[in-house]
Amino acid sequence: MVQVYQVIRVCWKTHYCQKRKPLIHALPSVITWELWKRRNTMKYGGSVSCNRVIHEVNKTLHSLAKARYPWRQNVPLLWHDMIRFFEGYKPYVMIKRVIWKFPFESWFKCNTDGASKGNLGPSSYGFCIHDCQGNLVYAKAKEISETTNIVAEAKAIAEGLDYCVEKNLHPLIIETDSLTMKKIIEGEWYKPWCIGTDVRRIK
Fold it and tell me: What per-residue confidence (pLDDT) applies to 1?
């Protein structure tokens, strides 16, 4: 008799096409959930057909696929068609040239970055400051405890700003490669509790 955990282990450890992996990993949980719902419905006098269970599994996986790959249009509803659809998917690679621009006359620019190996894992942050002629004014990099990318990015911005305030390096432009931090600082996205202190310092 095959146990549920054995099925889940096979789903997680078998090598798949990368685009299929999120769906394959979710499959045992979705099936188990729908069977549990059917069992509870029937226990209290209701009726749920096997075809209905299959339909609900397909519908949930279809919603997951659309959420996971929002740029993919016309994702099929049926499981077998969905698998073939993602097996044949070839991403379109776009290349964009990014140029560092000098700050305005008499301004300073602080570029920041943070990274985590493993996210959660060993982390570090760094920042560098240039004047309006592109001369390096100051640079710093520091290892921090095991944490996440978002914490490292927030620390980089906060520490860079602290140094600039302390040394009166202003007017100032802050540049970060983190879209998440940009949206959080501007108030467009929710602020995770783990960076609440740093975001308050930044603001």
Answer: 55
